């Protein structure tokens, strides 16, 4: 079975294996929310100021652990104050703080930005090249790059918890993941178009073209590398005729039925939802993971940190879920663990 069967858009769960690589694209000086920005241009504000780097962040966290939970903001492990419309962004931001690779990539971007603006004055427009790493396995470079660029904009990440950020910084980051998904899907559909068609009314020479010739001329480049046997289950081609005597609704209904019967996942039941998996659940699990990191005992976590789990087993189960969530949020291998992961009390 070819790797192609894993492809898909985000929220359609794309699972295309991708090697870690660097990408070079153009950057300009401010992150904006243009309606239709170019996928290869990013607009950033370069904030000159002290930020915790990939080298100091883990070290500082170990030092804070020695001081116990009293030495850190409660917003690092209590997330009850996060507004409902910020929950999704908060989950991705807080779990990103658990990744040494993401912190390292953001640190590198900030250094590149500052180097590019060293001789610039306020208000100048600057064209600069930058390099970003591939930190997810299955998303496109556009998703990873946009996500990293958003985190690099400003000085809050990774030192500040979500609710310790300025309101304006949270506002800018709230749509970050959504925009990264849009960038990913745009790149994905460009490489793997959903539907390719020509009709005789628009292409007079079509009746004289064989199906094999049409396939060779129309097939997306990404599929040319596969053998005919590997392509066959995923590229459906043949001869179709649509009877416009029927309404568009009836045509769509009939075509949907026809396609479902032939699609590899057409009759596959939707996965059963089990357990707790809301954004708040993910944040509560992360809070438990961090309290286990900062507190020497379960009793300290309950009395000083407000841990809501009544026993060690329940807390450890929540911490295990936090590690699973961490890998799921960023599509990471099972060998990666959050920065605040510990083996328990």
Our count of domains comes out at 2
The geometry reads as: elongated
Whole-number mean pLDDT: 80
Uncertain runs: 1-44, 46-50
As laid out across the biggest beta sheet, the strand order is: 2-1-3
- The helix-strand sequence is EEHHHEHHHHHHHHHH
Report the total helices. Answer: 13
The structural class is: mainly alpha
Beta content = under 5%
Topology, number of strands: 3
Q: What's the helical proportion of residues?
A: 40-55%
How far apart are the first and last residues' alpha carbons, in Å?
45 Å
Q: What is the alpha-carbon Rg in Å?
A: 24 Å
Sheet having the most strands: 3 strands, mixed
Supply the key terms.
345 residues; mainly alpha; 2 domains; 3-stranded mixed sheet; 13 helices; 4% strand; elongated; disordered N terminus
Give a description of the structure:
The protein is mainly alpha-helical. The protein has two domains: 3-189, no CATH class; 205-262, no CATH class. 42% of the residues lie in helices and 4% in strands. It has helices at residues 56-67, 87-96, 100-116, 141-152, 167-174, 176-191, 211-218, 221-224, 228-231, 248-262, 279-294, 298-303, 312-329, and strands at residues 23-28, 41-43, 128-132. The chain has a three-stranded mixed β-sheet with strand order 2-1-3. The chain starts with 22 loop residues before the first strand and ends in a 16-residue tail after the last helix. Residues 1-44 and 46-50 have low confidence and may be disordered.
